[in-house]
Inverse folding.
């Protein structure tokens, strides 16, 4: 099975949650839009297969989009999720909650509209980011702390929680320095160690202010 | 199988997407939080089962949350989705795209933070709603027009698209009056007819300005 991942080439973004699953499980995949003529191929396939937005995955005849849906599909195939439906749904609902959390991170720098630049919505971003770091960030962290303490079986959700912590550390270093989340921190360290080769490779795109996690000091109280 | 739906009792909200699946398929269910002592039962189960937020479903031993995940589970059981994994994933990614769309509708009146009142974020809401009705609404409508023209098999996605159109008509009547979306309109009428009894019953909570779809004339350009 040759997996093809399609995602914007210059950012980690939502595609990174899929990359981590491939990299952690040492599954070969092609990151198509980062290959020569890859963007053209991506747009043409998007149109033909009625994909709403990247990331999407081609696996044999199937074209699958929505990050959490792709992980739901890949989980058991990559050894990153159990096979029973009930247990897969339990992981999936956690991943969907991470999806919601990620939207809230994104909206810290885009509260008014995705079609505008951050620079066009700075005052609104300041209010949104303050509300996020004060109320929503602790709520999500508390929730996933509880989950990690209870869930002992490693899955793609652990990889996504690693990515959330890495991204939040980059975007909101001051807010994150105040956080006490030992289970999330232990998971982050464990995954970082296992992914050391990948993280040091050029395949790992650095965080930047084009992605979902963005470091703007004025948004980090 | 006795299905128990748990959701806030005073609004349609995300719970309505589940109610529509039960009502359309004439499947018995209990809307627990609308029963005596139902809210207490809801909070207690949420805590015990580590549910991040309503709606959630109890079905036998399983407790399932995240609206799209619940529909993914119920789909084949209620005759509202095919049984093959590939086709279920194709429906699910559409439902997840409706989920994203719904978040953008919600954020029209809550661009700064879910913990604040609308009245505390009116100027930001005006900018957000203008960007939504001008750019995002047409994009989503165009996308799902294309999907409905291609997908001939009725599923829970048709019910959710009915609900989106009803909600958008309520919240943004002026913006929606300008919309040309014949396949979405035909689907809306077809579902409305089939659901006539339910829609006229007290089980259908009226739209109101506590829910996700809210009519504030100043946000409807």
């Amino acid at each position: 099975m040759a997996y093809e991942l399609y995602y914007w080439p210059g950012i980690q973004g939502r595609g990174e949650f899929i990359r981590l699953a491939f990299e952690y499980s040492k599954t070969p995949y092609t990151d198509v839009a980062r290959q020569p003529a890859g963007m053209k191929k991506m747009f043409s396939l998007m149109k033909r297969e009625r994909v709403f937005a990247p990331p999407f995955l081609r696996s044999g005849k199937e074209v699958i989009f929505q990050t959490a849906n792709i992980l739901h599909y890949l989980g058991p195939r990559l050894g990153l999720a159990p096979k029973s439906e009930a247990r897969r749904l339990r992981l999936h609902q956690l991943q969907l909650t991470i999806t919601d959390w990620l939207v809230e991170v994104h909206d810290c720098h885009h509260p008014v509209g995705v079609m505008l630049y951050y620079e066009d919505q700075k005052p609104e971003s300041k209010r949104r980011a303050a509300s996020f770091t004060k109320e929503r960030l602790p709520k999500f962290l508390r929730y996933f702390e509880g989950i990690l303490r209870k869930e002992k079986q490693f899955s793609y959700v652990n990889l996504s929680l690693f990515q959330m912590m890495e991204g939040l550390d980059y975007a909101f270093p001051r807010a994150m320095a105040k956080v006490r989340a030992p289970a999330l921190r232990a998971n982050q360290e464990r995954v970082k160690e296992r992914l050391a080769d990948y993280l040091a490779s050029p395949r790992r795109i650095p965080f930047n202010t084009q992605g979902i996690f963005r470091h703007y000091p004025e948004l980090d109280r």
The beta strands of chain A are 3-6, 29-31, 56-59, 62-65.
